Amino acid sequence: MSAARGETDRGVRVVQLTVFSVLMILIGALLSVVYANPMVRLAPFDSPIVNQTLNYQLSALPVAGLALLVTFVFARKIRLSYFTLKRTGPMKPLFGRSGSGRWETDAWIIGLLMAATIGLTSFFQFLPTGFSFQWAYVALVIPFAAMNAFTEEVIFRLSYVTMGANSTSSRAYGLAMGSIVFGVSHYWGVTPNGIVGALMSIFLGFVLAKSIQETKGFFWAFVIHFMLNIATMAFVLNQVT
Predict the structure, then answer these.
(1) What is the pLDDT of residues 28-59, one digit of tens each?
(2) d(CA 131, CA 140)
C-alpha cells in the first residue's frame, strides 16, 4: 500500500509541476503581448521609447500579480515563503560538499561584474544610433529598472524556485526553469538579445535562481537584476530615435 501510495503521490506531483510549468510559460509569454499591446497608453514624454517603456512597465505589473497568485495556489506547502527580503546564506557549490563565499558579502561583487558586462553590451548595441542623455530620462531609469526587475523575478525566478522547493527534493527544477525560460524569452528581447543575449540571460537566470534557493529570499535576485537593468536602461531610454 505504501509503495502504491508513493507512486500515486509522485504522479500527482509530476502532473502539478507540468500544469504549473505550462501556466507560467504562458504568463511569461503574456509579457510579449503586453509589450505589443499595453493596457496603459500614456504619452507624457517626447520620446516614444520612454512612453512605450512606461506603458509596458505599468501594464506588466498585473501580470506579475497573476504569477504570484498562481504560485500561491500551486505551492500549497510553502506558499510564498520565499517572497521575503532574506539575504544571508552560504553560496553552495554545484558539485562537491565544500565551497566558499556568502551571499550577504559576495553578491555585491557578482552584481557589479554582471552589470558592467551587460552595460557594455548594451552600450555597443546602441552606439551606432547614438545617445542623447536628458536628465528626465536618466531619472526614470531607477523606477523603470525596479519595476522590470520585480516583474521578471516574480515571473521567471520566484515562481519556479518556489514550486521546485514545494514539490521536488532537488534544486534542478528551479535552476533549469528559472534560467532556460528566461534565456529563451530574451532571445527576442530589447538588450541584450539574439544568441548572445539568450546565453547571457540563461547564466543570469541560473545565478539569480540559485540566490533564492540558498537564501530562501527574494532580495538578491531583485537587487542584482535591478543593477543590471540600470546598466541597460540608461542606454535604452536615452538612445537617439
Answers:
(1) 999 999 999 999 999 999 999 999 999 999 99
(2) 16
pLDDT digits (tens, 9 = 90+) for 132-161: 999 999 999 999 999 999 999 999 999 999
Q: Which residues are bridge partners to 215 per DSSP?
A: none
Q: Are 24 and 155 contacting, i.e. CB atoms less than 8 angstroms apart?
A: yes
Cell of 208: 539569480
CB-based burial label for 4 (10 Å; 0-12, 13-18, 19+): exposed
Residue showing cell 500500500: 1
- Dist CA 91 CA 221 (whole Å): 14
Partners of 90 in beta bridges? 102
pTM higher than 0.90 for the full model? yes
pLDDT confidence band for 6 (50 / 70 / 90): low
What is the C-alpha separation between 195 and 235, in angstroms, rounded? 20
* Residue-range domain boundaries for the chain: 2-236
Q: Residue 202 corresponds to which amino acid?
A: I
User: Which residue in 171, 125, 146 sits closest to 223, CA to CA?
Assistant: 146
Q: Are 71 and 80 in contact (CB under 8 A)?
A: yes
